[in-house]
Amino acid sequence: MREGVVMWDPQQYLIYGDQRGRPFRDLVAQVGAVEPREVVDLGCGPGELTAGLAQRWPQAHIVGVDSSPEMIERARQHTGVEFVEADLRTWEPGRPLDVLMSNATLQWVPGHLELLSRLVSFLSPTGWLAFQLPANFDEPSHVELRDLAGTARWSGLLEVTWPAAHPPLAYLAALLDLGLDAEVWESTYYHQLDGPDDVLEWLRGSALRPVLAQLDDTARDEFIEQFRARLHGAYPKGQHGTVLPYRRIFAVARR
Fold first, then answer.
1. pLDDT tens, 117-139?
2. pLDDT per residue as tens digits for the range 171-181
3. Alpha-carbon distance 159 to 212, whole Å?
4. Of 134, 148, 161, 253, which one is least surrounded by beta carbons within 10 A?
């Protein structure tokens, strides 16, 4: 692990790639751009979903942007799409964008509501902005994680900026204030997993990542076992496996 850097693990993230990809596909389905020329996916991750945009818009120049070198390295295995390692807070496109997307990324960016005006400035006169972000931070998976990290055993070792989302109305108001036509909605996905340990493995690829990055191997194993016990209580295995409710907020807007 590079000191001070919270690394992403593309292989871990893709364990539940199909379930993680459903909201992205639902978001893309609501973008009404016809024959866009410039399409960008901010926070493209390992690139599978971004590469799929070439099937939706085969004539477009498609760019995936991510700040994780591990994710970009994996993404560049896909052909026909340009992938750029950059921080979305400072990245700028070379030309106006017809479609600007961001999938499950903005929750990691403090102050992302104020960032929307900058993103809108990149759009062409008929451009579309579409984003989706988790809003399940009051669910047991995240409540138990924050609670455990705040206990006496761990609070002195961890300094975490937790992911967060605003209420849907805040995104709608922000987009309307920027002069866009906008639609905002929320959906809760009920992911059917095999057992309670699947919830842990899901979180290893996302919310648990910045915690584990700050611990050495021994402490990491101890934290995982304590968190595992909490998740077993919160997500017991039933007759049909373990269900992980996952609320998400969607926004699609155009000039």
1. 999 999 999 999 999 999 999 99
2. 999 999 999 99
3. 11
4. 161
> Which tokens hold the place of 2?
């590079």
Instruction: Return the half-sphere exposure (C-beta side, CA atoms, 13 A cut-off) of residue 80.
Output: 12
Distance of alpha carbon 40 from alpha carbon 81, whole angstroms: 10
Q: How do residues 15-72 score in pLDDT, each as one tens digit?
A: 666 788 899 999 999 999 999 999 999 999 999 999 999 999 999 999 999 999 999 9
Angstrom distances, CA of residue 68 to CA of 8, 49, 74: 7, 16, 10
User: What single DSSP character describes residue 2?
Assistant: -
**Residue 189 β-bridge partners:** 246
Contact in structure between 156 and 128 (CB atoms under 8 Å): no
Q: What is the pTM of this model?
A: 0.91
Dihedral sign of CA atoms 228, 231, 232, 237 in order: negative
Helix (H) or strand (E) holding 47: none
Beta pairing, strands 242-254 & 82-85: unpaired
- Count how many residues are written for the chain: 255
